[in-house]
Amino acid sequence: MSAIQYFLISVKQVLDFPLMKLGNTQITPWAIILFVVLSILLFYLTARLKTWIVERLLAKSKLDLGLRHTVATIVRYCFIAIGFTVILQTAGIDLSALAIVIGSLSIGIGLGLQGITNNFVSGMILLFERPIKVGDRIEFGNLSGDVVRIAARATTLLTNDNIAVIVPNSELTSSAVINWSYPNEKVRFNFPVGVSYDSDPEFIRKLLLEVAAEHSGVLKEPPPDVLFAEFGESSLNFILRVWNVTHADRPGVLRSELNYAISKKFKEHNVEVPFPQRDLHIKSNGAHALGSA
Length: 293
What we know:
With 293 residues, the protein is of the alpha+beta class. It has nine helices and ten strands.
């Protein structure tokens, strides 16, 4: 017998005395310690298993990152459910007696953990229905970020400022969410541009298409296009529409880069960008003017 085995047997003999009775099962300090230690080990090993499935087993498959995480999460939950059953039996806890206790407490647990249950069910919906998956870029309320984790209770978003935001799953399934990556990462951006009435619309269209063609982030297919939106109050209004797959997580950067390029292009060709103007007419009062004289 090794020293470790002898130590464990000695500890078990010291801690193997009844604390309480659950049905026909005696609950001892040893059973409690064994249950806690094995549960921690179960969660650790299943977490490592999930990482291995995502990064090794399914890494070379045609599944996208979000689907790999979904499969790995479901497998982990299955192992946790089976593992808990084995742990309870290993700790010597009678499952039938435990079921009676859980049944008697089900009403109180249901009321007290209603929010947690709602979030858990919502998490299952997200994993199976997959309206949102790991790697997606979403906007939710005033938040915008990348989905980095979908857990049983909450989903983690990572913003452009590298801030992790924990969002309860129930809020994602019951509220409107903008998913920039669904069904793919190809997104169209619209850039409104106004020019003076002295400008030639066809020439403006040509310049805007040149700006789009010169930017590396603008896709060639579908091609960019320019809409003549309206005759504005003080300008001719156009909309430059471009497709992009690299700036969904930072649309402000693409908007800034193209606005810089448009401004430079317009200055090179002496295109005037107007500003709102008002004509102010002042009508003099004849009596007041006479009195002043």
